[in-house]
Automatic annotation (TrEMBL):
Belongs to the enoyl-CoA hydratase/isomerase family. It comes from Candidatus Lambdaproteobacteria bacterium RIFOXYD2_FULL_50_16. It comes from the Bacteria. This is Enoyl-CoA hydratase. GO terms for molecular function: catalytic activity. InterPro entries: ClpP/crotonase-like_dom_sf, Enoyl-CoA_hyd/isom_CS, Enoyl-CoA_hydra/iso, HoxX-like.
Length: 264
């Protein structure tokens, strides 16, 4: 995994390029360390999460998990690893956070983006903010972020029907704030980030913390419940079968196929 940081004009840029967008525990520990380096810098007022160019992030690395002696235990440890990173994002009360999605995101990678205060994507980006196709309920503060951003009803549909979302659909729902053309994507986000970091920053930061205060109070209990459910499901045959299908590139049956079978 390639991780790069840069500080310019009070903006900390964090690039993290992983193969297929998937991160194992060692990757996550390095990513958290790089993020903390920016978060602890007195020079940085806004952190811009770029992810990778081909993929923003697809959460934990299922292939590396499946190759180990105890996939269930390693999956759980990886989930706790990505939780620690997203917790660090959500509890950051010193800086603004922005996510720039140049490529698709799935599962924990979507939650990583949603933990940012402002979220922008290229028009071609596709989001899969769900876990059930892998035989899992969800982690990474999904039960806090999704209902808060789109409402309980839409969160239920997103998570249970488990259909992919285009960037345009995600903007309409409020998961993303805007799509920006690829030709100007990096330049435009950098300009916006530098403006936010240098104009009325204190007022923007105070506003952010007032908005997130009630959510932060709920985090410990919600993540405990999420991990308890995930620990149980990691032991179920559905997760093992979904991992095998994913590794062998066998398509999972989708709700959309069933729902539309008589509409053609």
């Amino acid at each position: 995994m390639n991780i790069e940081t840069q500080i310019k004009n009070r903006v900390g840029h964090l690039y993290f390029e992983a193969y297929n967008g998937a991160m194992d525990l060692a990757h996550l520990e390095r990513l958290l360390e790089a993020y903390q380096g920016l978060a602890n810098s007195a020079e940085v007022r806004l952190i811009l999460l770029w992810g990778g160019e081909e993929f923003f992030s697809n959460g934990i690395d299922l292939l590396s998990i499946d190759q180990r002696y105890n996939p269930t235990l390693l999956a759980y440890r990886n989930l706790k690893g990505i939780n620690r990173f997203i917790e660090a994002l959500l509890t950051n009360d010193k800086q603004l956070l922005m996510a720039g999605l140049r490529g698709p995101a799935a599962a924990g990678g979507v939650m990583l983006a949603l933990a940012a205060d402002l979220r922008y994507a290229a028009p071609s980006v596709v989001l899969n903010p769900h876990y059930v196709n892998m035989g899992l309920s969800g982690s990474e503060y999904f039960s806090l972020l999704l209902p808060q951003l789109v409402g309980l009803g839409r969160a239920q549909a997103l998570l249970l029907e488990a259909a992919p979302l285009s960037a345009e659909q995600a903007v309409r729902l409020g998961l993303l704030h805007e799509t920006i053309a690829p030709a100007i994507f990096k330049e435009e986000l950098t300009i916006r980030a530098e403006f936010l970091a240098n104009h009325q920053f204190e007022a923007r930061l105070a506003t952010k913390n007032l908005l997130l205060g009630p959510l932060r109070q709920q985090m410990p209990e919600l993540v405990k419940a999420e991990l308890l459910a995930m620990k149980s499901l990691c032991d179920q045959p559905g997760f093992a079968q979904a991992r095998a299908d994913f590794i062998n590139k066998k398509p999972s049956p989708s709700f959309a196929q069933v729902a539309r079978r008589n509409l053609r």
